[in-house]
Amino acid sequence: MKFLLEVTVDEGKLAQDPAGELGRILRYWGGNLRHYALEPGDGAPVHDSDYREVGSWRVTAS
Questions:
Q1: Are 32 and 47 in contact (CB under 8 A)?
Q2: What is the pLDDT of residues 29-46, one digit of tens each?
Q3: Secondary structure (3-state) at 45
Q4: Binning pLDDT at 50, 70 and 90, where does residue 62 land?
Q5: What is the pLDDT of residues 2-29, one digit of tens each?
Q6: Within a 13 Å sphere around the CA of 3, how many CA atoms are in the beta-carbon half?
Q7: Which of 8, 14, 19, 24 has the highest CB neighbour number within 10 Å of its CB?
Q8: Residue 52 in contact with residue 59, Cβ under 8 Å?
């Protein structure tokens, strides 16, 4: 099984402060993952601090 996180970092808040925004995204989803079974097929969109969709995470079979 794989956990995949894809985030576009070349526009919006992520372009202005990539380390800060990625850190915020990782903290948020790190705490939120307990609400998922983390089985293949699970996933959700990822948003920046302006609540714009900037990517997604998903769980896949290996």
A1: no
A2: 889 999 999 999 999 999
A3: strand
A4: confident
A5: 999 999 999 889 999 999 999 999 999 8
A6: 9
A7: 14
A8: no
Ranges of each domain in the chain: 2-60
Whole-number Å distance between alpha carbons of 49 and 17 = 11
Structure-block tokens of residue 38: 């983390």
Quote the tokens at residue 24. Answer: 């915020």
pTM listed for this prediction: 0.85
Q: Which residue reads 């997604």 in tokens?
A: 56
Q: By C-alpha distance, which of 61, 53, 62 is closest to 25?
A: 53
Assign 44 to helix, strand or coil. Answer: strand
